[in-house]
Specification:
Layout lengths: L5 H18 L2 H17 L3 H17 L3 H17 L3 H17 L3 H18 L5 H14 L3 H17 L3 H17 L11
Helix pairs in contact: 1-2, 2-3, 2-4, 3-4, 4-5, 4-6, 5-6, 6-7, 6-8, 7-8, 8-9
Length: 193
Amino acid sequence: SFLEDHEKALEWQLKALPIFESGGDSSKMSIIYDAIGITYRNVKLVGKSIEYHEKALAICRKINDPIGAAIALSNLGGALSIQKKYSEALIAYKESIAISKEYNASAIQKTAVNNTADLYFKQGIYDSIKPYAVEGLRLAKETEDSSAMSISLYTLAIHYFFRKDFARSESLAKEGFGISQRNNYLNTYHLHS
């Protein structure tokens, strides 16, 4: 579909980039760089994704934009995770979480918390998943984000599955599935795909 044509989006973003760079608005540049980083990740050019998230982060730090930095850090963590640079990704996520907490940016914190749980899952460190999944669920409820609720419930289900508490795992998975079904989500298990 049109909304998933990442190659075309990247083409247009790169064409527009010189216009924004000549404008001199650092705040807008950090947003543009971060968006380009996401698009590069979507077209599987993860090295370029990291480069642009780092550019966005550098600008945010220079202009003292903590919220922008928290977003860039979370996105950078995602790209680093794809490249299996787990320790670097964890550092980025934890800094994003700390900044988000400090500035009461629950939506950013929720994303970084869920991504941290996913990072532990990818590494097979199942005991470390739970605190992040619990916090992600709390934040999802606070922000009324049903998609994040289902993700957090699935993540908790995974934690309990690997703890061999199959009844609890099944109950949480069913609860997450119920939320996904009620909200007509097409991909009911998109956290670990």
